[in-house]
């Protein structure tokens, strides 16, 4: 199965490191037959005509920041062209998250290296607005294969969506484990049995572990459980809901965005 992977990289406000971008591209190549990198430069507001902008030289500062982004994007492009298809885009700062979400809708999967706060915000936006699964990649990951997979399972719609979206890689895995935090939600053993039976109908065997013990937050428990089993990828559903004007994340979802220890495929 050919998988079309988008690796968006934001150049503003902080330039990404080569290590973090390379980690995202490497993961994209592992998940698909290739990766398309989208280097996104922010076009900054000038506030033309405002007396304060002339006083502090806003237009000149914006131009300098844009030039710095472009120089960084060109350097990344030269480094990455042998590894992936590279495109560049210049977008209004206010439109970037929505525009990248729209672009991701015509790819099978998006991969985001979550090195910076703006990258984490992009990952969150893509999970809930692109309609596609998103793989969050720690900046320092040295993943060289997708062979051992952990599934964070609670029987919910979101976790079922994530398992479905991850099946191309689950089918190829040599080892599958189901990690569940029974102390986080009212999760019955039967729902684990149902997932194991579903995987069994695909000719797959999955082990199961309860990661409830310990005082860590549930998102950390799930990641630690996956790491104990040597997982190359953790599959989990993303939870969130709108509250007035803010988007409120579920507990485990928020925790993995705050600290991503292992590559995580998230679906909503």
UniProtKB/TrEMBL annotation:
<dbReference type="InterPro" id="IPR006015">
    <property type="entry name" value="Universal_stress_UspA"/>
</dbReference>
<protein>
    <submittedName>
        <fullName>Universal stress protein family protein</fullName>
    </submittedName>
</protein>
<dbReference type="InterPro" id="IPR006016">
    <property type="entry name" value="UspA"/>
</dbReference>
<dbReference type="Pfam" id="PF00582">
    <property type="entry name" value="Usp"/>
</dbReference>
<feature type="domain" description="UspA">
    <location>
        <begin position="149"/>
        <end position="266"/>
    </location>
</feature>
<comment type="similarity">
    <text>Belongs to the universal stress protein A family.</text>
</comment>
